[in-house]
Amino acid sequence: MTHKNFLRLLHANNILRATFNKNDLAKLRKKTGYTFSNCKKALEVNNNDIALAEKWLKEQAQALGWSKATKLEGRSTLQGLIGLTMSNESSLLVEVNCETDFVARNKSFVSFVEMSLDTCLKHCQQHSDSNSLAKINLGNKDLKAIIGPEGKSLADHAALTISKLGENIQLRRATYLKNPGNVYLAGYTHPSSEKMTARVHTGKYGSLVAYTSASNNSTVQQVARQICQHIVGMNPAKIGVRGEDEPMENKDEESVMIYQDFLIDPSVTVEQLIEDVGINIIDFIRFECGEQIEDVGVPVEVSQNS
């Protein structure tokens, strides 16, 4: 082989190798979501082995995420999302906070909220075997310790998300409700999700209602969901019991739910509405993103109501 032909062959091999590397780079970038420069570095370090490069990226991102999480820990997180997931047997509300509304709309942040919901739901289902209405409240420390995908804690997954988005992210709180067969659940997030059949709903506000009814038909279910909207909009402090709780003279200051004018139709009170439809409200939960709250308290608190 002449020297000229050898140089031509070497040049052709370099072109093929460069093309191969670019294909790997594109695959790794699409699979992991990390920057091209980071993916290129990962391939170089791991001799173009995509699997090893992906593992290396995750390790680097985890270390960087914890470093960033430590630096950003004290920064205010009043934005974020309330996540809601519901099934026939249980429902869960979770609040995840970040620093800006821009990040709250980011796909990576939304995905983290959805993953946290799924992980927390499975955790709560494993720790609730009551035949009565059961409630589990989880705070920041409890949520961070829950093990999620890949055997990593939610704190680890939060650190990974921080490394991608560069903002402080906090798993703030969650409340889980498990209902027995004679108790029904309704939920709502605002702004309302476009697809009401979706598995996960997110918004700036969220609410859950546990109720009983002789016939949980479509009308009752619709009213129950409207009551969830009322809870988001009117922020009642308690359900209320006639004879024990007295209505306020100024209706605009009313905090007892049964005495409040119904948000959807102010011509009736919530009490009149539920009597007409045949709903008995047992419990409700309301989350508002970034609101001031009392400490959740003990790691897992379970209360049962008949």
Overview of this protein structure:
This is Elongation factor Ts, mitochondrial. Belongs to the EF-Ts family. It is found in: Mitochondrion. It holds the Pfam family EF-Ts_N. Keywords: Elongation factor, Mitochondrion, Protein biosynthesis, Transit peptide. The chain has 306 residues and is of the alpha+beta class. It folds into 3 domains: 51 residues, Orthogonal Bundle (Helicase, Ruva Protein, domain 3), CATH 1.10.8.10; 82 residues, Tetrahydropterin Synthase, Chain A (2-Layer Sandwich); 108 residues, Tetrahydropterin Synthase, Chain A (2-Layer Sandwich), CATH 3.30.479. The chain is 42% helix and 22% strand. It has 9 helices and 9 strands. The chain has a 6-stranded antiparallel sheet with strand order 6-1-2-4-3-9. Strands 5-7-8 form a 3-stranded antiparallel sheet. β1 and β2 form a beta hairpin. α1 crosses α2, α2 packs across α3 and α5 packs antiparallel against α7. The chain is elongated, with a radius of gyration of 26 Å. 36% of the residues are buried.
In short:
It holds the Pfam family EF_TS. It is found in: Mitochondrion. The protein contains nine helices and nine strands.
Specify the helix fraction band. Answer: 40-55%
Estimate what percentage of residues fall within beta strands. Answer: 15-25%
Which spans of ≥5 residues are poorly predicted at pLDDT below 50?
1-20, 297-306
The rounded distance between the terminal residues' Cα atoms is 90 Å
Q: What order do the SSEs take from the amino end to the carboxyl end, as H and E? A: HHHEEHHEHHEEEEHHEE
Shape: elongated
Please state how the strands of the largest beta sheet are arranged side by side. 6-1-2-4-3-9
The name of the CATH architecture of the largest domain is 2-Layer Sandwich
The CATH C-level name of the largest domain is Alpha Beta
Secondary-structure class: alpha+beta
Number of helices: 9
What would CATH call the homologous superfamily of the largest domain? Elongation factor Ts, dimerisation domain
Provide the gyration radius in Å: 26 Å
Mean pLDDT: 84
Number of domains: 3
Number of strands: 9
Enter the CATH topology name of the largest domain: Tetrahydropterin Synthase, Chain A
